Amino acid sequence: MNILKTAAFAASMTLAAAAPSFADTLKAEGGSAAGLSALVPQLLSKYTTDNHEIRVNVDQTLTRAALKVANGSINMASIPAGAYDKMVKGKGPYKKVSEEAIAASGNVRALFSFLGGHYHPMTYADSGVESWEDIKGKRVFVGPPAGSASGQSMDMIEAITGYKAGEDYEAIKLAWGAANQAFEDGKFDLFMRTGTMGSAAIDQFGSAKQFRILSVPQEVIGTDAWAKYLQVPGRATDVMPAGTYANQVNADEDVLSSAYVMFMGVNKDMSDDVAYQLTKAMFENLDDAHSVNKGLTPLNLGNAFVSQKAKLHPGAIRYYEEAGVEVPAELRPDAS
């Protein structure tokens, strides 16, 4: 059940009467601490110490974070491309406040896109779940309440098996921190855990007993169901190579996984200079970022706009033009 109350949710959508005022201390939010949605704003905090202090709160529900960016209560956040698409349309987690969500989406601007991570459909080796079909009638953690991860998890399961949440399996929704502990305590049979490929935090789940990661069946790729699943902006298919995790019982196999794209979102009223400095700081420190986590390797100037639907901030555009990067006309704020 969606635990967000309509009134409270609508209140968070209310736009500030005056334009947000951005000081040298910036407030940022990221998602699961095991994923790149938390790491990217943390790295920006590291790279911009000469100009700004960035305070990052992680393990946040990023659909809410997008609203906070829109109303100016925080300065920036990692925003799932798919969640923003639903925000623009007033659908999914924004359905009950559709008109307000659509209006709020116009206040969001992007700095750059990045690969947010991969889905890790995890089950302990002794759980009896060895294939997707085995989750019939079982308890499955799909993501946080009202978050985009839960919707993507349920869509993925339906595309692979045809199973529907609430009919063929029990869909469990918890905050990420509570879900981590619940999985270790055996409270659900399949853990649809998001995270960076190769993350030590993922491998840690197998410190007591080994886990299995379910692969997207090869025969599903190319079906109408999978094509429909990938139609949502920000969704992709990727391979996690064999040997990625030491504690994985099927570590000798490549795992076909679903990946997701995010973007660093800011309010449209952030000053051009601040947006410029943040964008420049990220791309001038790519060597360090890539060394910190190999999941950030795809992040480069050539991939800065992957799955991007939000308009770019003028300050970010200024940096791209200085760097000789062609900015698509549809991503400019004055584009219709």
Describe the protein in words.
- By secondary structure, this protein is α/β, with parallel strands linked by helices.
- The protein folds into two domains: 6-12 and 24-116 and 261-331, D-Maltodextrin-Binding Protein, domain 2 (3-Layer(aba) Sandwich), CATH 3.40.190; 118-260, D-Maltodextrin-Binding Protein, domain 2, CATH 3.40.190.10.
- It has helices spanning 6-13, 36-47, 62-71, 81-89, 98-105, 148-161, 176-184, 200-203, 224-230, 272-283, 286-292, 314-322, and strands spanning 25-29, 53-57, 76-80, 108-124, 139-143, 170-173, 190-195, 211-213, 235-240, 255-267.
- Strands 1, 2, 3, 4, 5, 6, 7, 8, 9 and 10 form a ten-stranded mixed sheet that branches.
- Helix 6 links the parallel strand 5 and strand 6 (170-173).
- Helix 6 runs antiparallel to helix 9 (224-230).
- The radius of gyration is 20 Å and the shape is globular.
- The protein starts with 5 loop residues before the first helix and ends in a 14-residue tail after the last helix.
